[in-house]
Task: structure prediction
Amino acid sequence: QVQLVESGGGLVQAGGSLRLSCAASGRTFSSYTMGWFRQAPGKEREFVAVIINWSSYTEYADSVKGRSTISRDNAKNTVYLQMNSLKPEDTAVYYCAARVYGGSRDAGDYPYWGQGTQVTVSS
Result:
């Protein structure tokens, strides 16, 4: 089992940048595929990015591709989401999630979730 704690959210103007962090407990962090999802008010939770376990392979939602970078530091048990050129439509609660198996864009495939961190982008 793994516990996840996100940080790094906040209020930023459109065009700005944020780096979200997700710290994981446990000794086998590198064995987990890590995903970032977001949920805006009144909307379903949606996939943002994923980084596969045991590798640096990544995938992104079309809405953030080219503006965001997911990365992991297995020595620090941490996954990051660097977001640039932020837009008001990026406003949401951002969650990190973990699963033992390979990559997935389906939130239902992730058994472990953090509490979320709010990102608000003003126009």
The CA atoms of residues 16 and 46 lie 22 Å apart.
